[in-house]
Amino acid sequence: MIGGGYVGLVSAACFAEFGLDVSVVENSPARLAALREGRIPIYEPGLDRLVESNMQAGRLSFGDDIAAAVQGAEAVFIAVGTPPRNGDGAADMQYVHAAAKQIANALTGYTVIVTKSTVPAGTSRRIAQLVREARPDADFDVASNPEFLREGNAIGDFMRPDRVIVGLDRTAPDSGARAEEVMRRVYRPLSLIEAPVLFTTLETAELTKYASNSFLAVKISFINEMASLCEKLGADVHDLARGMGLDGRIGRKFLHPGPGYGGSCFPKDTLALSRIGQEAGSPCRLVETTVQVNDARKIGMAGRIIAACGGSVHGKTIAVLGLTFKPETDDMREAPSIPILHRLAEAGAILRAYDPVGMEPAKPALPPSVIYCQDALDAAEDADALVVLTEWTMFRSLAPRALAETMKGRVIVDLRNIFDPVAMRAEGLDYQSLGRP
Hints:
The protein has 437 residues and is α/β, with parallel strands linked by helices. It has 19 helices and 13 strands. The strands form 3 sheets. Strands 10-9-8-11-12-13 form a 6-stranded parallel beta sheet. α15 links the parallel β9 (350-354) and β10 (371-372). α10 (202-233) runs parallel beside α13 (285-308) and α13 (285-308) packs across α14. The radius of gyration is 24 Å and the shape is elongated. Keywords: NAD, Oxidoreductase. Belongs to the UDP-glucose/GDP-mannose dehydrogenase family.
């Protein structure tokens, strides 16, 4: 596994749990040292135990020597970053290409080089070209195996997936049969639970990841717009979402209104798919618009908070519950809290924030004036207003009376709809949520 980041580490630990021998190559000295000591540099429930047990069993190891890791390997997975390229949003492929060249020089026998990173269509064929240029004698095939891991539930998603997508080079002399046999053995434990393993062409697999994430982003933005419309018309977005979700063609998931999507995947992948469509001469207008709608949504939430505070937050103390882009992760990438809190700080607000695991990762991204608190009620102490930005389970159990007694003001702006409006208002709180009367 080339890359010990989120995708690489979770995938490596789960493959080891399948009973495979897995070597992870990580070129960051600090991250490598942490992994070798059993310290997990990311927050993902259950990952620390999975890594520890498989290291003790001798199935999972970490190093920085690609040649040693690749020697004798039947499959080599590339799981390095593909961040947005500055300027146009396209995926930056420099790390993938560098890994491909290093793998080429390390090959010792037949190997399937598998792209786990999210990459544009055509990347696997480009990897094959780079390997052939570096090692004309190499015996290898390429495959695309995109990940579909939700942060906070990644292990469950890997071990009990909705589907596994494997792209093969169907133009190869054997139509990819040899690579398919290797990949079937890699994922054999999933066949025992009848998880669907879909074999496609390389380009189809590469595009499927972008298409899936972008469709979900469209779905989130749609329900956010419906929440705004519900507020204008006196409808309830939760009942609307239930009515929609009971339609089997639509489904219930990702119909929860919020301050906009964030994280490591949706923002990056929608931008990349927009760019892919533009370069192919087939623009993805829905996805392009979704990117714009989501950006405007995040900025608009700050204005909503200011309006709830009477049109000004200057000198007012605002308690902020949740900073990460979603619960059960410490990931701050593209989190709605970033633009919202910067806007509030610029408007003169005093910000007191609490997040169960995200405060340290949040500090570089948030205004330096933010005060980080010990718990939710500490953040709410003498606050003029309280804002919910991440729906951590622990926040749901906060008693309305405790908030009313702790806060100085009455304003609650619940951007995740985690509280009961009736219970909140019964305590004299000025409660506002999204798309609910």
